[in-house]
Structure formats: structure tokens, C-alpha cells
Amino acid sequence: DTYLGYLTEMYNQPYIWASGGVTDSQHQSEHLEGSDCADFLVYGKRRMGASYAYTWTGGLPKITKLLGAGTRDADGIYRDGKGQPLPFTQVGDVVLFPRHVGALAVDRGELGVLDDQDLMMHTLFDSPKVQAFADSGYAYKPVELRRFR
After folding, report:
1. In 10 A of CB 96, how many CB atoms?
2. In whole angstroms, what is the distance from residue 96 CA to residue 101 CA?
3. Rounded alpha-carbon distances, angstroms, from residue 113 to 58, 80, 86
4. What burial letters (b/e) apply to 43-69, b meaning 16+ CB within 10 Å?
5. 124: closest CA among 40, 8, 58?
6. Strand order in 94-97's β-sheet?
7. Which H or E run includes 47?
8. Cα(58)–Cα(98) distance, integer angstroms
9. Rounded to two decimals, what is the model's pTM?
10. Which CB contacts under 8 angstroms, 24+ apart, belong to 107-112?
């Protein structure tokens, strides 16, 4: 009955790039047929009773608020434009990369700080899973931390 718990309902379902449906209630995610990364995150919120429409990564900023943004430094820590470490905000917050998204799952590495050893729950070309940022293929991309409104 937690956000990450609802996301695990999609485990063992296929990754479907640009998953969809004629209406949100007919969306492939609603029927546990699979999802892409953005629809995967929206599915969890819908299961919690929110009425968000399914969207793509570019649409997520419209339904989330920005908590911080930055890039990965050589030490694996994500820092903002002033060089300050980004905090590991809270489990379930949105980790938005260019054209990909996941949900914060576990604070590892340097505790309290967003780093490439932290784990996110996401789906990318295979069934959803929990994976370290460092192993996701997106560790060197700019990141935004966001929270659903």
C-alpha cells in the first residue's frame, strides 16, 4: 500500500515504449500489460488514488514540483550549479533524466546525498527493477529531483 509497493505490481511486465490506450482507464499500464518509464511512475500514483493522466517524461514537470537539479561529479555525487551536493530527498521522489525517469528507492553510498550508488526503481527496455544510478546508463546525464504535486 506504498507508492513503491504499487510500482512492484508492474514487475515481470514488459517495457512498452510509448505505452498507451484510448483513455487512461484503458491504458496498457492499468491492465498490467506493461509500460514505459513515465507511465510506470504515473501508474503507482494512480493506484494510490491520484487522477494523473498518463504522460511522457516531457510531461512530468507539469504534474511534479522541482526539488533540485544537477549533474554527477567525478566522485559520483550529484551537485547543483553552485557545486553543492543534491540531497537524497525521500523514497518515491521522481528522478528525471533527459528522456528517462525513475523513483528514488534506497539511499546508498554517501547517506543523505544523491550519488550514483543510490537505487532507483525504473523500467528501461526490460521489466521494472531496482537499480543503482551507476548501472542505469543515465549516471552521467543531468538529473532533476521532483515530487508529484
Report:
1. 25
2. 5
3. 25, 12, 6
4. bbbbbeeeebebeebeebeebbeeebe
5. 40
6. 78-79, 64-72, 143-148, 94-97, 100-106, 119-122, 129-132
7. helix 37-47
8. 8
9. 0.95
10. 108/132, 109/76, 110/77, 110/85, 112/87, 112/88
Q: What is the pLDDT of residues 26-68, one digit of tens each?
A: 999 999 999 999 999 999 999 999 999 999 999 999 999 999 9
C-alpha cell recorded at residue 27: 491504458
Among all chains, which residue has been given the C-alpha cell 494523473?
Answer: 52
In the block, residue with C-alpha cell 510500482: 7
For 146, counting Cβ atoms within 10 Å of its Cβ (0-12 exposed, 13-18 middle, 19+ buried), the class is buried
Output the nine-digit C-alpha cell for 134.
551507476
